[in-house]
Amino acid sequence: MLKRTADYIVFTLLGLAPGSRAGEALDFFLYDTTKIFLLLTTIIFVVAVIRTSFPPERTKRILSHKREYVGNVLAALLGIITPFCSCSAVPLFIGFVESGVPLGATFSFLISSPMVNEVALIMLWGLFGWKIALIYIGTGLAVAIIAGIVIGRLRMEKYVQEYVWEMRVGNAGIVEQGFRERLVYAREYTLDLLKKIWPYVVVGVGIGAFIHGYVPADFLARWAGRDNPLAVPVAVALGVPLYSNAAGVIPIVHALMEKGMAIGTVLAFMMAVTALSLPEAVILKNVLKNRLLAVFFGIVAVAIVFVGYLFNAIL
After folding, report:
1. What is the rounded distance in angstroms from the CA atom of residue 181 to the CA atom of residue 31?
2. Phi then psi for 18, rounded to 5 degrees?
3. How far is CA 96 from the centre of its chain?
4. Could you give the CA distance from residue 91 to residue 6 in angstroms, rounded to a whole number?
5. Of 19-23, 103-107, 148-152, 273-277, which one has max mean pLDDT?
6. How large is the angle between the packed helices 130-153 and 103-115, nearest 10 degrees?
7. How far is residue 307's CA from residue 98's CA, in Å, rounded to a whole number?
8. How far apart are CA 293 and CA 116, in angstroms?
9. In degrees, to the nearest 5, what angle opens at C-alpha 173 toward C-alphas 168 and 175?
10. DSSP sequence for 78-136
11. Cα radius of gyration rounded to whole Å, the chain
12. Global pTM?
């Protein structure tokens, strides 16, 4: 229905020729924008209702008293229901550290939250199908858990800025809400989140539409195809300077896959954009000392490159 509507607007009402660069780009833009916003509105509302049972105070209390590896797993899973971009996840990351959550578990959350969440899941499912969606979610969780465990085992607490340890988090009480209040909260949260991410969606779909309509397939095949052994690290390096959340980068990923980029390379690019970014590094610089910041980016980048090569080899 959505595809037919987009085709009608572009090729009938506007009179653009099917197969033309402008027509294909605009058709891609209208169809993907509409589908993505419908998916986002539905899933964010549902998850927002679920999240009312897990306020930050309760979440921190659950994670603070778990064994090391269990805490990493729980923190990574928590990222699925906290759809933050890499920068907005930092304040909760600080709250975890302040409240005594092990450092490795806090990093598992910091990686998982922007990279693995319900926004990424539903958009990937809608655009690529359930297999690609589950592959991405599974590998993203694995990267978050393993990287957090490695950082935790390195015992690098001394490389957290001293003022973070000196701060204290208020123990605000958890206010239970009735179902009506939860629905009101979910509606307001959904509208607020959509207001924040809609520019990323529009820009992301716009870039994806341009790639879909105007970038020749052989251009991408030359530098990011299976025959290029450096395609994965190049994609990761290109992704780090970009700053976006899953909503903004997935339309670009969709266009890159349609142009023939290998699935592992595409997944690595998406992970780099969402989990590693220069703005995130700037914010974290105020929380972490240089050595820990470098270790964090290095471990995650190596893990993402490994994932890219692995899935290029098996898919």
Report:
1. 34
2. -60, 135
3. 20
4. 40
5. 148-152
6. 160
7. 32
8. 21
9. 145
10. HGGG----TTTTHHHHHHHHHTT--HHHHHHHHHHHHHSSHHHHHHHHHHH-HHHHHHH
11. 20
12. 0.65
* Cα–Cα dist 228/8, whole Å: 40
- For residue 160, list its beta bridge partners: 288
Cα distance between residue 20 and residue 30, in whole Å:
15
Residue for token digits 């340890």?
165
Cα(124)–Cα(122) distance, rounded to whole angstroms?
A: 6
**What's 65's DSSP letter?**
T
Q: Give CA–CA dist 138/12, Å, rounded.
A: 42
C-alpha pair distances (Å), 280 with each of 86, 211, 241, 263: 6, 27, 10, 26
Quote the pLDDT of residue 127: 72
Write down the pLDDT at residue 186: 81
CA 78 to each of CA 23, 36, 258: distance values in angstroms, whole numbers, following the listed order:
42, 23, 32
> What one-character DSSP code corresponds to residue 215?
S
Q: Report how far apart, in Å, the C-alpha atoms of 48 and of each of 92, 95, 185 are.
A: 17, 21, 8
* Integer angstrom CA distances of residue 288 from 57, 90, 92, 118: 23, 11, 14, 28
**212-262, pLDDT tens digit by residue?**
677 665 565 566 666 678 888 888 887 776 656 666 677 777 777 777 778
Tokens for 132, please give them. 């690609």
Confidence of residue 173 (pLDDT cuts 50, 70, 90): very low
Least Cα distance to 292 among 152, 142, 165 occurs for 152
For the record, the structure tokens of 292 come out as: 């820990």
> Is residue 19 scored above 80 in pLDDT?
no
Which residues neighbour 54 within 8 Å (Cβ) at sequence distance 6 or greater?
Answer: 78, 81
In terms of average pLDDT, the best of 98-102, 167-171, 250-254 is 250-254
139 vs 304: CA distance, rounded Å: 9
Q: At what angle do helices 263-275 and 103-115 cross, to 10 degrees?
A: 120
